């Protein structure tokens, strides 16, 4: 099977965003919304800023300093307005406090507000990073706007809480098409729908049957399968190489992307992207804020840098995307200047500098 790993064209990623809606250049430059978020967000987006500056990329950042801690709706509005202007963003993660009352996660509100419905996580071994299993190369595509994240919860009588999971045919079709289009454009041959239709016969049944129908009717060249989420979790840790493209409702995607992230070496390594009809926001594939290592200068910025490479592809700057990804891979493979999470001793800044040096050397 032909598979492109790092090197994918813009067309292969800009699946959901219509061409007419791609960001416009002004004076040959793009303005991109930058939302560092909480935790290690500032440190790892700093790495990206340095690399882009050294490479003299035609990108101007519009930095939005909103933190999830304050949980301000105004903050989200500011970020949303910026995204609506610029159409493309790079984002860290906002902290969500489990005990926060009054509103839900800012991350969820943000994605819903912009209807960025498809979330993509690229789970692939990086040469030089030791893992239990090799040969993993799977793409996880997660519906991002409904399912268990509807935000519809209430206590109907004291001690009884109802939490509504919403699955619609429209959104199931939309995410299924995204997954098949992605598979088609990236020479992948199989899409597997993850569900729990044996228990949630109506909701997950609708998701499963929709994916299967769209596949059979509109993408006959792509093999379509389905798997129960429990089994998918077991298979993911025992034989992940069997998976090609997985398409999931919201919560199962959150869980499986974390399993996948652990398989290939942790949250510091896995890039991701979120696409809507009009907007694209690039952020690490597994959404960890990293409060425990915040401010220590030890975070691994790889996930953020590789996400920024996906952003460059989205803007049609494929050459720069390839160059930066290759430099990151080379520094990790050499193993001399890597961060603690993957067994090295380097700081975030030393690792970033090693990438900048590698870019200069290969120029
Ligand atoms: C956010 O912070 C950065 C650097 O700390 C600063 O350059 C930028 O102007 C700030 N943005 C806003 C909107 O205040
Ligand atoms: C997919 O395969 C075709 C034909 O082999 C090739 O021309 C194309 O570049 C490949 N696309 C990607 C994204 O790998
Ligand atoms: C679990 O998945 C494996 C491989 O994907 C499949 O062969 C097996 O039949 C599945 N088991 C159940 C109980 O669905």
Written description of the protein model:
It is an enzyme of class 1 (oxidoreductase). Its EC number is 1.1.1.41. Keywords: Mitochondrion, Oxidoreductase, Transit peptide, Tricarboxylic acid cycle. The protein is of the alpha/beta class and 363 residues long. It is built from eleven helices and twelve strands. It folds into two domains: 1-131 and 266-363, Isopropylmalate Dehydrogenase (3-Layer(aba) Sandwich); 151-264, Response regulator (Rossmann fold, 3-Layer(aba) Sandwich). The longest helix is centred in the middle third of the chain and has 17 residues, at 169-185. The chain starts with 9 loop residues before the first helix and ends with a helix. The chain binds 2-acetamido-2-deoxy-beta-D-glucopyranose (3 copies).
Series of secondary-structure elements, N-terminal to C-terminal = HEHEHEHEEEEHEHEHEHEEHHH
Side-by-side strand order of the widest sheet: 2-1-3-12-11-4-5-10-8-9
DSSP summary: helix tally: 11
Low-confidence stretches: 1-14
Question: What is the name of the CATH topology of the largest domain?
Answer: Isopropylmalate Dehydrogenase
CATH superfamily of the largest domain: Isopropylmalate Dehydrogenase
The backbone outline, from C-alpha atoms, is globular
Alpha-carbon distance between the two ends:
32 Å
- CATH class of the largest domain reads Alpha Beta
Beta-strand proportion: 15-25%
Biggest sheet layout:
10 strands, mixed
The total domain count is 2
Please bin the fraction of helical residues. 25-40%
């Amino acid at each position: 099977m032909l598979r492109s790993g790092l090197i994918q064209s813009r067309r292969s990623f800009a699946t959901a965003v219509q061409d007419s809606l791609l960001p416009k250049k002004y004076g040959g430059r793009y303005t991109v919304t930058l939302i560092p978020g909480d935790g290690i967000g500032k440190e790892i987006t700093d790495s990206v800023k340095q690399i882009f500056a050294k490479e003299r990329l035609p990108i101007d950042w519009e930095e939005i300093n909103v933190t999830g801690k304050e949980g301000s709706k105004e903050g989200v509005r500011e970020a949303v307005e910026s995204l609506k202007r610029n159409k493309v963003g790079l984002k860290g993660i906002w902290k969500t406090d489990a005990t926060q009352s009054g509103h839900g996660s800012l991350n969820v509100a943000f994605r819903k507000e912009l209807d960025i419905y498809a979330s993509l996580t690229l789970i692939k071994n990086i040469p030089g990073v030791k893992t239990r299993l090799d040969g993993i190369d799977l793409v996880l595509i997660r519906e991002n706007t409904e399912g268990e994240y509807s935000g519809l919860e209430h206590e109907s009588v004291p001690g009884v809480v109802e939490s509504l999971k919403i699955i619609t045919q429209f959104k199931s079709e939309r995410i299924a098409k995204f997954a098949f289009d992605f598979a088609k454009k990236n020479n992948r041959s199989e899409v597997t729908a993850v569900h729990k239709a044996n228990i949630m016969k109506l909701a997950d049944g609708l998701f499963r049957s929709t994916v299967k129908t769209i596949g059979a009717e509109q993408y006959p060249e792509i093999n379509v399968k389905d798997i129960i989420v429990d089994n998918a979790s077991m298979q993911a840790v025992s034989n992940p190489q069997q998976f090609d493209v997985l398409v999931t409702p919201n919560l199962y995607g959150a869980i499986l992307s974390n399993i996948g992230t652990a398989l290939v070496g942790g949250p510091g390594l896995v890039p991701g992207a979120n696409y809507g009809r009009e907007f694209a926001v690039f952020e690490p594939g597994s959404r960890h804020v990293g409060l425990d290592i915040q401010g220590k200068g030890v975070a691994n910025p790889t996930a953020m840098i590789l996400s920024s490479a996906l952003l460059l592809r989205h803007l049609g700057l494929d050459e720069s995307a390839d160059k930066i990804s290759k430099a990151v891979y080379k520094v990790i493979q050499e193993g001399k200047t890597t961060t603690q999470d993957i067994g090295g001793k380097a700081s975030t800044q030393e690792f970033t500098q090693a990438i900048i040096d590698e870019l200069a050397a290969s120029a």
